[in-house]
Specification:
Blueprint: H1 2-13, H2 23-50, H3 63-90, H4 101-133, H5 139-179, H6 207-215, H7 220-227, E1 235-239, H8 247-261, E2 268-273, H9 282-291, E3 296-301, H10 308-314, H11 316-335, E4 344-350, H12 352-360, H13 363-366, E5 373-377, H14 386-391, E6 410-413, E7 430-434, H15 440-443, H16 474-484
Parallel strand pairs: 1-3, 2-3, 2-4, 4-5, 5-7, 6-7
């Protein structure tokens, strides 16, 4: 039975999910699912035997599970191309002639074999420890304690040695990339720009993303040429991870830099929280800079140089602490200014920047004098406010495009602008979430291991394949993989947010 269910799990992982996959990745996902389901079944069988419950054995029928498993696997590999093209069609990608079933099979075999090998090692180690303990303890107690001890030992080795070593290596690699300054990347001469001679932050300390952010700012001539009206140059403040010693010091530096260049004299001030690498999507703040004739200031403070998913695993609290410190310093200064002359204050973030920006905003502390709004894009599933707003959505609205009460505070939008669907005008504070239905970083749910996510119900999002089906365990593995590959789609799908949708 374990073999049949494991083969079924492998086949089902080839069925449509949110993001297209290569044959190599598809095989790896299938192998993981095969081993995981096989291990679960083997564990349940072992528990059954441990409880001394009756079992049926017929050696002459042992070939049947192998035959059924082979049939199921063959069906899955034969269907893989059609299933992959169903996903590719949903996210606007060209179909493929073949999903590479041989590569899928070979990769799946290797991955499953390795995982099952480690499973056998775990089992033998647990039995060895249990046999030692059985001298002093009852057999069942010895087995239980032996299994717990070996599980702790494996976790300590895996997490404490292997994972930490890999993370340290990646941390050092990304730090070198962040510090690299190309020969053609000159230091700005404008004293109002971060990293200039007059700036409180050195050019080197801004990091790669910060230097790109500063250099990419449009000038007044460019804005005026496009808008056809006189314009001024927008102000962009960036404080790098190495610009000050800790989050509090970097927040103080950001505020001092804003004051130095006169940012609080502009009409708009945007606190743009970057992604894990320190990146700010150029398409996010730039439209404001053009629409307002350059009369905009924005500020970003780096908290990591790792990719968002890695930063979330390694140092999530660092991003939280930085975002809170930055908002607190700037908001405290802003609210002391005359209301008739101070800039409108907005928050913005993409991906992990959205999560940290959300965490920085304590509603109870700003009720008396709130900022004008927030624009959060691709909010990760672990965000603070977004899951609650989605859960408490109006009855009859889908989870991928919810409506929250009358829409006076919070509105959601997708590839199609639905912000005008609210039943009430905006209140003093505006919050907008931009999300794509196919974005696994937003719509992954740990509970998909045992229950179907709400966004799978009909009607589905426009870029989610109607052939996607929920399967216990399997869907969890699929969505987990989709999170890792969510940035491999064309713009406008997955976690790749198109400029037109801003």
């Amino acid at each position: 039975m374990a073999l049949i269910l494991a083969a079924t799990a492998f086949t089902l992982t080839l069925s449509p999910s949110l993001i297209p996959r290569s044959g190599l990745l598809q095989g790896a996902v299938g192998g993981i699912s095969f081993a995981l389901v096989y291990a679960i079944c083997a564990g349940l069988i072992a528990l059954w035997v441990w409880l001394d419950l009756p079992t049926a054995k017929n050696p002459r029928l042992h070939w049947i599970p192998f035959a059924l498993a082979a049939i199921i696997l063959t069906y899955g590999l034969a269907s893989a191309t059609g299933w992959q093209n169903a996903v590719r069609k949903a996210v606007g990608m060209e179909p493929v002639e073949s999903a590479r079933p041989l590569i899928i099979a070979a990769t799946g075999l290797v991955v499953a074999a390795l995982l099952l090998f480690f499973g056998r090692v775990f089992r033998r180690a647990a039995v060895l420890v249990a046999n030692r303990l059985a001298v002093l303890l009852p057999p069942r107690v010895a087995i239980t304690l032996g299994t717990i001890f070996v599980a702790w030992l494996f976790w300590s080795i895996g997490n404490g040695v292997l994972v930490h070593s890999a993370l340290r290596f990646m941390d050092a690699s990304y730090a070198q990339v962040d510090a690299l300054i190309p020969a053609d990347e000159g230091r700005p001469s404008d004293p109002r720009k971060s990293g200039s001679v007059a700036s409180l932050a050195s050019w080197q300390s801004l990091g790669a993303a910060g230097r790109d952010r500063v250099n990419a700012a449009p000038d007044s001539a460019t804005i005026g040429k496009i808008t056809g009206t006189p314009a001024i140059e927008p102000l962009r403040v960036y404080v790098g991870l190495n610009s000050a010693k800790d989050p509090a010091a970097r927040a103080d530096l950001a505020l001092a830099e804003l004051i130095r260049i006169g940012a609080f004299d502009r009409k708009l001030l945007v606190i743009a929280t970057p992604t894990g690498t320190g990146w700010i999507d150029p398409a996010s703040v730039a439209p404001l800079e053009f629409l307002w004739g350059g009369d905009v200031a924005s500020v970003s403070v780096q908290y990591s140089y790792l990719p968002s998913w890695l930063s979330l695993l390694v140092e999530p609290e660092y991003g939280h602490e930085t975002a809170r410190a930055v908002f607190s310093r700037i908001y405290d200064h802003w609210r002391q200014l005359p209301k008739h002359s101070r800039p409108r204050l907005y928050l913005h973030g993409l991906s992990l920047g959205s999560l940290n920006s959300d965490i920085s905003l304590d509603f109870f502390n700003v009720l008396g004098d709130p900022p004008q709004g927030a624009f959060w894009v691709g909010p990760p599933f672990a965000s603070r406010s977004w899951p609650q707003f989605t859960k408490d959505r109006d009855i009859g609205t889908p989870a991928w495009s919810p409506r929250f009460r009358d829409g006076s505070l919070v509105r959601f939008t997708t590839q199609a602008d639905t912000t005008a669907d609210a039943t009430a005008p905006w209140g003093p504070m505006r919050m907008i979430y931009l999300q794509y239905p196919s974005d696994a970083i937003a719509f992954f749910e740990p509970a998909s291991f045992y229950r179907a996510p709400a966004w799978m119900a009909n009607p589905r999002g426009p870029d989610v394949s109607p052939a996607l089906r929920w399967v216990p365990v399997v869907t969890f593995v699929q969505l987990l993989t989709d999170m890792m590959t969510a940035t491999t789609t064309n713009p406008g799908h997955g976690h790749v947010y198109a400029a037109r949708d801003y």
